[in-house]
């Protein structure tokens, strides 16, 4: 094991072109301090740095082997987290979803001309299991079983069906992927980190009858909860997600959290609220201006192509989402996204778009 971590670290040091946060913060002194440590789940420094050492073009480059890694390897992970999330201290507040009975927003685009769809998602980790690098096949199957038991207790509009990946027909897989419902095993960064071990065992997707609430089981994180629908009604989407989170917590699932970091996930880029609220929105005029990125930055929102990070826009439609996940509450993150989207809509109209 010592040989593996040494050779991984050597590859990282040799990659002088690498701009990853892992390379920036894993100094020789820190490496010596951490390389012999093991978490209570059996996670090692090699598990955390494998992906970033094999893919030296990574942006972050480090994954947590398990929830305990955030304590055992804190000198490295804390530095990466502060830099990535642009915070000087790790003092994430306690969860606060706001008063969902009295929200001061509803449909952000009542005309229906600009917002195509709205989506809010969060990641969650089971508190008593490690992350992909340290999980056994049996762990994955057991995690899936306890998750499905909780999902089957959902009622009302959340009631739905679980579809395991194991045994799923190619046609069903294709259809669900095209509908942006299903995940796949094609990310090389995640593969190097051990994210696809035992694929597709222990993995699957749950969705309600209206296909407005989804749960991904054992994709990158143990769980991803996703609330979504056509149009711009952010209130309906957010309230549905909050109800689902509360129902699942009440049905016996406990999620990994740490003081100052919020909810813990496999990748340190997604800690804290873990909340990403987004709209697919038609903004061809604003997107064509040279100051588009600066405009988004001003409101702490981020614009991507509709097929995810590093993709191009299609027909002037962009994915606009909140940028900050750490250091603010869930309701603050939603309000930040909402104000950003409202500003984007107003600016597009000012430029003669939005018709």
From TrEMBL:
What keywords were assigned to this record? ATP-binding, Kinase, Nucleotide-binding, Transferase
Decide whether keyword ATP-binding is in the record. yes
Q: Does the keyword Transferase apply?
A: yes
Q: List, alphabetically, the PROSITE patterns matched.
A: PHOSPHAGEN_KINASE, PHOSPHAGEN_KINASE_C, PHOSPHAGEN_KINASE_N
GO cellular component term, pick one: extracellular space
Q: Which residues form the Phosphagen kinase C-terminal domain?
A: 114-351
**Which part of the chain is the Phosphagen kinase N-terminal domain?**
4-86
Q: What are the binding positions for ATP in this chain?
A: 117-121, 180, 224, 276-280, 304-309
Any one Gene Ontology MF annotation carried by this entry is: arginine kinase activity
Q: Which GO terms describe its biological process?
A: phosphocreatine biosynthetic process
The record's family statement is:
Belongs to the ATP:guanido phosphotransferase family.
Which PANTHER family does the annotation name? ARGININE KINASE 1-RELATED, ARGININE OR CREATINE KINASE
Record-given protein name: Arginine kinase
């Amino acid at each position: 094991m010592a040989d593996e971590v040494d050779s991984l670290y050597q590859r990282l040091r040799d990659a002088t072109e690498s701009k990853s946060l892992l390379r920036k913060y894993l100094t020789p002194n820190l490496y010596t301090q951490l390389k012999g440590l093991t978490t209570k789940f059996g996670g090692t420094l090699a598990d955390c740095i494998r992906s970033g050492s094999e893919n030296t073009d990574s942006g972050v480059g480090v994954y947590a082997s398990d929830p305990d890694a955030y304590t055992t390897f804190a000198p490295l992970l804390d530095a990466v987290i502060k830099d990535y999330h642009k915070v000087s201290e790790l003092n994430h507040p306690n969860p606060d979803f706001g008063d969902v009975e009295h929200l001061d927003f509803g449909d952000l685009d009542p005309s229906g001309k600009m917002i195509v769809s709205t989506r809010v998602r969060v990641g969650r980790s089971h508190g008593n299991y490690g992350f992909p690098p340290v999980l056994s096949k049996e762990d994955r199957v057991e995690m899936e079983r306890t998750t499905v038991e909780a999902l089957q207790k959902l009622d009302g509009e959340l009631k739905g069906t679980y579809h395991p990946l194991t045994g799923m027909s190619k046609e069903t897989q294709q259809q669900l992927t095209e509908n942006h419902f299903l995940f796949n095993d094609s990310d090389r960064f995640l593969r190097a980190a051990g994210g696809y071990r035992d694929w597709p065992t222990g993995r699957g997707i749950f969705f309600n009858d209206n296909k407005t609430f989804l749960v991904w089981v054992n994709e990158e994180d143990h769980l991803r909860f996703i609330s979504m629908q056509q149009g711009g009604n952010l209130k309906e989407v957010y309230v549905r997600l909050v109800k689902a989170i509360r129902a699942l917590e009440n049905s016996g699932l406990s999620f990994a959290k740490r003081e100052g970091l919020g909810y813990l996930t496999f990748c340190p880029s997604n800690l804290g609220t873990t909340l990403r609220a987004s709209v697919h929105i038609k903004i061809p005029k604003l997107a064509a201006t040279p100051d588009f990125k600066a405009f988004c930055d001003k409101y702490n929102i981020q614009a991507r192509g509709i097929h995810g990070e590093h993709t191009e826009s299609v027909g002037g439609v962009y994915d606009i989402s909140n940028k900050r996940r750490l250091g603010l509450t869930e309701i603050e993150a939603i309000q930040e996204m909402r104000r950003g989207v409202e500003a984007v809509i107003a600016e597009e109209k000012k430029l003669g778009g939005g018709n």
